[in-house]
Description:
This protein is of the alpha/beta class. It folds into 2 domains: 2-161, HUPs (Rossmann fold), CATH 3.40.50.620; 187-309, Elongation Factor Tu (Ef-tu), domain 3 (Beta Barrel), CATH 2.40.30.30. It is 32% helix and 27% strand. α5 packs across α6 (135-145) and α7 (164-172) packs antiparallel against α8 (176-183). 31% of the residues are buried. The mean pLDDT is 89.
Amino acid sequence: MEVINNFNDFTxxxxxxxxxxxFDGVHLGHQKILKSIVCTAKNNNEKSVIVTxxxxxxMVLETNTDIKLINTIEERIQLIEKLGIDYFVIxxxxxxxxxxxxxxxxxxxxxNKLNAKxxxxxxxxxxxxxxxGNFELLNHYSKKYHFKVHEIDAISLKEVTISSTKIRxxxxxxxxxxxxxxxxxxxxxxxxxxxxKKIGSKIGxxxxxxxxxxxxxxxPKNGVYVVKSFVESNVIYGMMNIGNRPTVNGKNQxxxxxxxxxxxxxxxxEITIEILNWLRDEQKFESLNDLKNQLYIDQLNAVTYLQKxxx
Length: 311
């Protein structure tokens, strides 16, 4: 897959199949759209193209927004690449671009730059200034510019419509298993291992402190989780605490992972952490010994859970 960041200098001469959207989460609904695009492109001897916007439009247009996203842009690229897309076009979103009308978007971008012959959009997709573009407008202009528009219905899981908003809410509430079911993969964090205060080592539970670079990345609610980590090509299971460490009067939120049966030096390493299940809320204990006793219980619960899902 070719990632296009310099969109101003980019055009495609051969026919394409295009879809437009943020695709936050690249969830099962998104995957349905993208698989349709890849299939259509192969059948028609065309190239498949995703058009997305970064930063997220709400980050630019809503001054007071504190929107958090399921994936960073790098994570989104990683997920989409697995689906066989040919081009991932990232359009820098700013105030000037937001003033582009829906018709201008169709003519200058879809037709002139991307040479779209087939366009796939979600059932509720809107675009252009004041969100005036929709399926009906695209269908109207498709006759003039000789492309076809395909509208994809909502996909449901157990009669619940999948959406990025519902997944974000599930993650924020600690309902990780539901979020993972909607995503079609395990929600994950990526970050660098940094030095902490080494309090965990003093009580027999050394942890790797994870620094997530992007402030807009959604972090699950404070608590203890079962995790699967990828460390230097090794798959390591463990448990993770997200929170302010109230037992030791911590002031800032930290993400700390205790790996099971792993003690290599990994400071500075970039690691990926898949979150499998929620164990409990963060608590304040009367002493470090009380915390240590609870961590033994957490470890037992985590191992019991892992034994059920690992064959």
